[in-house]
Design a protein that fits this description.
This protein is of the alpha+beta class. Helices cover 63% and strands 7% of the residues. It contains 25 helices and 11 strands. The two termini are 31 Å apart.
Length: 737
């Protein structure tokens, strides 16, 4: 591996113009494809294999043309000053508003609340549902403007008018603010780390090129593959983070080799062969973790995982080819000011083994490994404790800011009609084989309506064939309450007896039931996913480090950091501690996909630091240093760069906390906290402490296993045989470039 990458880096340096032009052509080609690609149609969310999805599919089959996935807007009218919405003037205003709402070109239907009984018992609140012919992504700007104007006209009458539903959702992509914040902070960190504008700018430039290629490619494929905006957001998030980090490690190793007196071409080749090997295996662990999301069986997770994995692959390829090419254009610009000054004076700086922050910290840990280990594990364990209170769900309008009309509509409906009104269950009765379909549907309705925890059941609506009925069930509790989940499980548990009595089958669906089913599916998939991803990564690290205990220690450290980061998410987003600081106005269940999503991404990123840091320790150990001395050497060369890489990732992920989308905000916080804990607690404290306690045993590998494992030479042993530094005959000419 190292020898192959050595030749690749050398070739990229020598053929730098060709490499740069090839990447420019790739960027131009995918950019043109992305800009000319037709706008992707938003695919409806689906979750194969769960009851609520099967019921939804049955509705679409038995009610053709009913626009089961059509966008809806639920408009709520609240009378002022204790008046009633049934008062003459207020009723006129409501009816006028409904008439105006129904005039939209894409509107399929509206419902008169006075005829449908959609008026609260105290007469203070009424609502209407506006159904559209297309889904939310198909709504035109004119339809959205018409909806907003109708709401404003209704408010002019003195009524409080709010609206919720997917028709009110903003379907635009991310604002770009998060990326800008991440890039700005990354630039500052790189400048402080390298002390050179060129060295700081090179990783940023190559990372942006990689992100541009990935983003354009996803845009071009969005139509054929049905990719969503969330796929692009995750690809940007991870592509930017790993793109900067991978280039950072190549440039850092290049500067180290130049400090030994090597010529630019040789330094680039050695940097690509050694640090590049770590980049390949680190990138491979990230790709395994992301691509592994496809085993969960959730289409959206599969799309996001594969899209982000593609962005990581692009980042690895750019780090191995374009970064060496750019170093060929500016071989001295990325060096420290001291080195550049020495070269201008005609001297050749020699590497000195200096004591830096990394060596001082390593010495501190090596002197007292057990206390450091116990303190780090205890701290992460304390953070992980809130995980025992983890409640999964899908945030809805109740999680939005009170400044939004969706949240105010949610609160108005809960106050006027009860908390369960915002999360009705939909029951689909398949009476195709029943002797009397109407009697069968009535029996199902009566039995479910008599269940404890049910407020009301709507009249059943039949399809044209008369063999399928649909009715709504309103619980007494809110959509995210445990009592609502218990009600769904009770209804489904009573199904055999109800179906036997009715002579027909039924299924429970609706947003609330869908969220419950998703949570259960994700929880059941988490352990198998962990086993697959962690198992593959342990095997990969076994090959890289040729050790039994180092990969196991890496996996255990990851589990600690991911559990602690999930505990932090629970503390903020579920329990509400510090929520105001992050702009989280309402707490509640954690997004169902969050645990498995966080596990996948954080595992890959955690292995990044493991490979980069421990590979330098392994390299020192292979070249004859004692275990404790190898730990110090690894920290001397890698600690500062790992810290910079972690700070960059934290900055990139933290930028997404400012996004309005609750899912992106939660993901950004979870990833930022996970990287913080993994880099600074696990890799910087637990790793050296464990290696110090293990000593020689850390690098033990059974002889039989050593014989059958492939040798990848990630530490570049074949490239770093003791030789005299290569002369630099062309350096003066290159310096003028």
């Amino acid at each position: 591996m190292a020898a192959f990458l050595y030749r690749m880096g050398r070739l990229a340096f020598r053929r730098r113009w060709t490499v740069a032009l090839v990447w420019a052509a790739v960027l131009a080609a995918v950019g043109l494809a992305g800009m000319t690609a037709p706008e992707a149609e938003e695919e409806p969310f689906s979750m194969p294999g769960i009851e609520s999805q099967k019921a939804f599919d049955l509705m679409e089959e038995r009610f053709p043309g009913a626009a089961a996935d059509g966008a809806t807007a639920r408009v709520v009218f609240v009378s002022p000053n204790g008046e009633k919405v049934t008062a003459t003037e207020n009723k006129k205003a409501v009816e006028a508003a409904i008439a105006e709402l129904g005039d939209g070109t894409q509107v399929a239907s509206t419902v008169d609340p006075y005829e449908s009984g959609a008026v609260s018992e105290d007469g203070s609140t009424a609502y209407t549902t506006v159904t559209y012919k297309v889904d939310a992504s198909g709504l035109t700007d004119a339809s959205r403007s018409h909806l907003d104007e109708s709401l404003e006209h209704a408010r002019d009458s003195g009524l409080t008018v709010e609206a919720g539903g997917d028709a009110m959702e903003d379907t635009g992509g991310p604002s770009g603010t998060a990326e800008a914040i991440g890039i700005a902070v990354a630039a500052v960190v790189l400048l402080i780390t390298f002390g050179s504008l060129a060295a700081a700018g090179l990783p940023l430039l190559t990372a942006l090129i990689g992100v541009g290629i990935s983003l354009f490619a996803i845009t071009a494929l969005a139509g054929p593959l049905g990719l969503t905006d969330t796929t692009s957001t995750l690809a940007i998030m991870l592509g930017l983070a790993v793109g900067i980090d991978y280039a950072l490690f190549i440039v850092s190793r290049y500067r180290e080799e130049r400090a030994k007196g090597r010529a630019p071409q040789e330094a680039v080749a050695l940097a690509t062969g050694t640090a590049g090997s770590a980049v390949v295996f680190a990138g491979l662990t990230v790709v395994i973790a992301l691509a592994g999301l496809s085993v969960v069986g959730i289409p959206m997770l599969t799309e996001m995982g594969l899209g982000a994995a593609g962005a990581v692959v692009v980042g690895v390829l750019i780090a191995l080819t374009l970064v060496p090419a750019f170093l060929g254009f500016w071989p001295n610009a990325v060096l420290t000011r001291k080195d550049r000054k020495a070269r201008r004076a005609g001297g050749t700086p020699q590497e000195t083994r200096k004591v830096n922050g990394g060596t001082r910290w390593a010495s501190f840990v090596l002197r007292r490994p057990l206390p450091v280990l116990l303190a780090a594990v205890a701290g992460l364990g304390a953070l992980a404790l809130p995980m025992t209170d983890l409640q999964l769900g899908m945030p809805g309008d109740e999680a939005k800011s009170t400044e939004t009309t969706q949240r105010r509509a949610y609160d108005a409906l809960a106050e006027g009609f009860g908390p369960g009104f915002n999360g009705p269950l939909t029951v689909v009765v398949d009476a195709e084989d029943a002797d009397d379909p109407k009697a069968a549907a009535e029996t199902v309705s009566e039995r479910i309506g008599g269940t404890e925890g049910v407020v009301s059941v709507s009249p059943a609506q039949f399809n044209e064939s008369g063999d399928t009925a649909v009715f709504s069930v309103v619980p007494t509790t809110a959509p995210t309450d445990q009592e609502t989940k218990d009600l769904v499980n009770t209804v489904r548990g009573d199904r055999p007896g109800i179906e036997s009595e009715a002579g027909a089958t039924f299924e429970v669906t609706g947003t609330t039931a869908m969220n419950i089913d998703i949570s259960e599916k994700v929880q059941s998939a988490l352990v198998p996913y962990l086993l697959v991803v962690v198992g593959l990564a342990v095997i990969l690290l076994l090959v890289v480090f040729r050790s039994i205990l180092v990969p196991l220690k890496a996996a255990a450290g990851f589990l600690l950091s991911v559990l602690a980061s999930l505990g932090a998410v629970v503390v903020v987003f579920q329990q509400g501690h510090g929520a105001d600081l992050l702009g989280v106005e309402t707490t509640g269940p954690i997004m169902s996909l969050m645990p498995i999503f966080l596990v996948g991404i954080v595992f890959g990123l955690a292995m990044d630091y493991e490979v980069f840091l421990v590979s330098r320790m392994r390299e020192a150990y292979v070249h004859g240093e004692r275990p404790a001395q190898a730990v110090t050497s690894g920290f001397q060369h890698s600690a500062r760069v790992v810290v910079a890489a972690a700070l960059i990732m934290i900055a990139v992920f933290s930028g997404f906390i400012g996004e309005s989308d609750a899912m992106i905000k939660m993901i950004g916080f979870g990833l930022a906290s996970a990287v913080l804990l993994d880099a600074f607690v696990v890799r910087m404290a637990i790793v050296p402490a464990v290696l110090a306690l293990l000593g020689e045993r850390a690098w033990w590998l059974p002889k039989w296993l050593d014989r059958i494992l492939p040798r990848v030479d990630v530490e570049g042993e074949a490239l770093t045989r003791p030789t005299e530094p290569e002369a630099e005959p062309a350096e003066k000419d290159l310096a003028r470039a």
